[in-house]
Design goal:
Length: about 325
């Protein structure tokens, strides 16, 4: 504590799935994540609110074509991009989001606008109309790497069940599953929590498939804890993962206990996902059942990341 302020905390993720390809890829992803964490943490030290920091962090991740959200989103089986995003402010316990929106640079920006709306979750047509109302420019988030990935999969009749979480040329020659989503969880100087999540989906899926990212299952916050999830959306929905963790903290569990129990259950149910979280005390936690979780954080003293964390279906914890 310093005066009436608390030490801000921040954790972000860029997806979960199978192992990254060697040290070069790890360092490249680490640099991309740190380039988000450092400036957003500086804003938190200046007094930016939790939900504003979450939105700005998500926008920066959406702008990085390496990650499956905004620019660089994967394509559904018909070759179209449909993105989803959600924002939840812990102080007000307001959830807002958009589902299967296209032709927008920052889906999280639409979710932010809906925070103060009577109708706080919009699907494709409603989100498109909101885009026009806000007079946001039409934007094509498709990149050549994602297009080539889709063309390759079409030639093989979409044998893979998901696209690559990280867009890199060498990954176009592999068939390893990786689950892509970006997320930001924040505790600000006022002690307020917020969480945001954005995704292009899993890629190659049935037309119109909806992810967990614009549901409380994948993104949830209240005054006690905030969580953003990544991985197989259907698994996250079946576990109602984000809300489950937050409710357990609200009911008296420590964040560490809530994560450990939730991921032990997930392992028993053979789920494939990861999650990042912060509670009102400033504790930071992350967990995964997948091989790798692409996350980085600032604990108030230093930067850290989970890229080489080898925990098997376990959680890790930073006070």
């Amino acid at each position: 504590m310093a005066g009436n302020f608390v030490q801000p905390k921040l954790i972000v993720h860029g997806g979960a799935g199978s192992s990254l390809h060697g040290g070069k890829s790890i360092e490249s992803v680490r640099r991309s994540l740190y380039e988000i964490v450092e400036p957003i943490y500086a804003l938190l030290l200046e007094g930016v609110s939790a939900h504003e920091a979450v939105v700005q962090g998500c926008q920066m991740l959406e702008d990085n074509p390496r990650f499956n959200a905004g620019t660089g989103s994967v394509l559904q089986s018909d070759g179209q991009i449909r993105m989803s995003a959600a924002l939840m402010a812990g102080k007000t316990q307001r959830f807002s989001g958009v589902i299967n929106v296209s032709r927008v640079q920052h889906p999280i920006e639409l979710a932010q606008f809906l925070q103060n709306s009577d109708d706080r979750v919009l699907s494709d047509f409603g989100a498109a109309e909101l885009l026009r109302e806000l007079k946001l420019p039409v934007y094509n988030p498709m990149t050549n790497l994602r297009l080539q990935e889709w063309i390759r999969e079409r030639e093989h009749n979409f044998e893979d069940d998901a696209a690559g979480v990280v867009a890199e040329p060498e990954l176009l020659t592999t068939s390893e599953p990786r689950r892509g989503t970006i997320g930001v969880v924040v505790l600000d100087r006022e002690g307020n929590l917020a969480a945001g999540t954005s995704t292009g989906g899993k890629g190659f899926e049935r037309i119109g498939r909806v992810s967990d990212s614009a549901m409380p299952a994948g993104n949830y916050a209240n005054p006690h804890a905030a969580v953003s999830c990544t991985g197989i959306g259907e698994d996250i929905i079946d576990e109602c993962l984000a809300a489950r963790i937050v409710v357990r903290v609200t009911d008296g569990m420590s964040l560490e206990q809530a994560m450990q129990r939730s991921f032990a259950e997930a392992q028993q149910n053979r789920r494939d996902f990861g999650a990042i979280a912060i509670d009102a005390t400033g504790a930071i936690a992350w967990g995964k059942t997948s091989q790798v979780l692409l996350a980085a954080y600032h604990d108030g003293n230093q930067l850290g990341d989970t890229l080489e964390w080898t925990g098997e279906a376990l959680t890790s914890f930073a006070a």
